[in-house]
């Protein structure tokens, strides 16, 4: 159905659209680091976050299943009314971004992969970039391929740092244990003459380890946080489409949805969100 | 269909049954510690091991789903011909043992929970037992309930040691990092006057950390390994049912099945099995 709007009506519709929340989804709680970065970059915006905790992890599922799950998550958020969609999950962004863009051609959709790849290329001087991610992301080569699409001369080393995920979920983000584990994974890589000068955090869990990484890594290494770079990409995209909320004094709200386990979502999610989250704030839904 | 057998036929049937393999299943590779213990206890027996890697982890799924998955795994193994079934997965043993026993009343079925609970009660002198397990097992209280069913006076402390799972899967089973993490989780528990004298390893991943745990824990603490105790329970059950393989010089075979990811199964599985495992040895099947 097409509705003919007066110029006033068009104006109101655009205003209403600008006040819609931004939808964000992930297979679990890791994407809350992206939400955290989005809220810092865009404090006046509202968000609805969906963690598909009943079906996590996506990383070990087939690409077809991931596309199906991502489509269901997107449809759930679109049905609630959103003005943009952020895929805050490396596996889903890698597998399902084109399918979601095809399905919702008018909706701005941003995944976590490309912004991180672009930012890493923007800061590296040696063109040697290290990516740390989960085993699934490394195996799929998501960042390696995204960086190569932008610049074939970049040398990308990908390291699976699976124990970081457990540390982050346990809330162990500082101290001797964390530093020793970082050294165990990365000392070899950063102690050679041909060491990378850029470290891209290619897993949504890893931003909470950023300060420990900073302590351990050589000073010249720039850490690129794909949560922050995704937030900046979303801000830029909304700006260019005239969709930024224009009430600059507004303090945007957040609505949390999960497909299972509100208590764990709230407990572990607090670590990634960087602020307390109560079980009662998490609505359990089917997608 | 009932087949009337001559006494000779009965004898041959019993003999043939004794030579059937023992079926073992888990949601992934952790159950290979149970297989390792079974092979040490019963070297002449053959085994068929199924890791439902496509649907792991079971720990975060609903009990109904776990019962359905476990039933499918059991049916797959029964269809291949087995003389006994071992549920080498805490979540599946806790949720599905009664359902599987009801479905296969003539098949000896052993889960990992009860043998561990019995063994812990057999060795404790103070009646204070510590259980370490995954978050899911602790939340379900599987060992706490199993121990309480056997002796209401036992005091059981359950600690979720989620980072141990990642360490075990990464093959980090010894050294400073592992010892510091053990201390982080357990020092508080074992440094009090009312400390437990028994530590039950309530996760199939944890036997590979046994020697590191031994280094860190007070000398008086007895470590009960539920993989070993399950293997002994299986041996006892086969003995009592006259199903032990009677060719004592035979060296039993093992057939590995998984529902996804043969390469990862082989690589990570080697750690738990305690011997090299090649990708080509793992058959991928649907259940």
In brief:
Chain A is an alpha/beta fold and 287 residues long.
Mean pLDDT of chain A: 93
Radius of gyration of chain A: 19 Å
Q: Can you give the helix content of chain A as a percent range?
A: 40-55%
**Through-space gap between termini of chain A:** 26 Å
* Chains forming the largest contact: A-B, 23 and 23 residues
- Using the alpha-carbon principal axes, give the shape of chain A: globular
The CATH architecture of the largest domain in chain A comes to: 3-Layer(aba) Sandwich
Judged by helices, strands and strand pairing, the structural class of chain A is: alpha/beta
Major sheet size, sense and barrel closure of chain A = 6 strands, parallel
Strand proportion of chain A? 15-25%
Describe this structure in words.
The structure is a homodimer of 287-residue chains. Chain A is α/β, with parallel strands linked by helices and 287 residues long. Chain A has two domains: 7-111 and 230-284, Rossmann fold (3-Layer(aba) Sandwich), CATH 3.40.50; 114-226, Rossmann fold. Chain A has helices at 7-18, 32-41, 63-80, 90-103, 113-123, 135-140, 142-150, 162-170, 176-190, 210-216, 226-240, 262-273, and strands at residues 22-26, 47-51, 84-87, 109-111, 128-133, 155-160, 198-201, 222-225, 254-258, 282-284. In chain A, the strands form two sheets. A six-stranded parallel beta sheet of chain A has the order 4-3-1-2-9-10, sandwiched between helices. A four-stranded parallel beta sheet of chain A has the order 6-5-7-8, with helices on both faces. In chain A, strand 1 (22-26), helix 2 (32-41) and strand 2 form a beta-alpha-beta unit. In chain A, helix 3 crosses helix 4. The first copy, chain A, starts with 6 loop residues before the first helix and ends with a strand. Residues 1-6 of chain A have low confidence and may be disordered.
